[in-house]
Amino acid sequence: xxxxxxxxxxxxxxxxxxxxxxxxxxxxxxxxxxxxxxxxxxxxxxxxxxxxxxxxxxxxxxxxxxxxxxxxxxxxxxxxxxxxxxxxxxxxxxxxxxxxxxxxxxxxxxxxxxxxxxxxxxxxxxxxxxxxxxxxxxxxxxxxxxxxxxxxxxxxxxxxxxxxxxxxxxxxxxxxxxxxxxxxxxxxxxxxxxxxxxxxxxxxxxxxxxxxxxxxxxxxxxxxxxxxxxxxxxxxx
Length: 237
Description:
Layout: E1 11-20, H1 27-37, E2 46-50, E3 54-59, E4 62-67, E5 70-75, H2 83-99, E6 104-105, E7 107-118, H3 121-130, E8 150-156, E9 160-173, E10 190-203, E11 207-208, H4 214-233
Antiparallel strand pairs: 1-5, 1-7, 2-3, 3-4, 4-5, 6-11, 7-10, 8-9, 9-10
Helix pairs in contact: 1-2, 2-4
């Protein structure tokens, strides 16, 4: 490996935006209307779980969860441009904020998970150790492996917090094959070895509805995450 890793060395895996708010009891009456509001923006909407206090549904653009005190949208193919992700979040959150009459958010979170693949788990561990993010000598500790396989960092003040996790791990990839094709398609289950970069940015202070503009906030936070994580990966610059 030549030189330190950068943010761009990792491939986006999932991107999630979550809102938390005081219990919105209008969910019992308005969930269907929220889904109906999204029909013109999202494609192939399907409900995977429906209950009085929690509904999960999906579309070609991503998966959605709606709960009595929280809502989130997750894209499984976010790419590096937050434009489409922001558009889909805005459509979803605008609908639920209006229908559930939400006036304040107790937490706004943005979670970005990225991965870099390696040939072996050992290579992933070596890549993590080579970052020198912790000022520890490379020696055995607790009679265990020579270097840590996971590093966690957290910053928090009265306004916002950030959680950053780096972990060398194996990830199972399983292809779901229809029963009628099992005899024709070979077993393609595969174990991949990755270095996972997991960033969770969240607000700590309450945010009034009028204070939050998702079209400005979300792309700005994605840019901030990229800049700050690059500094961390390159030795704390």
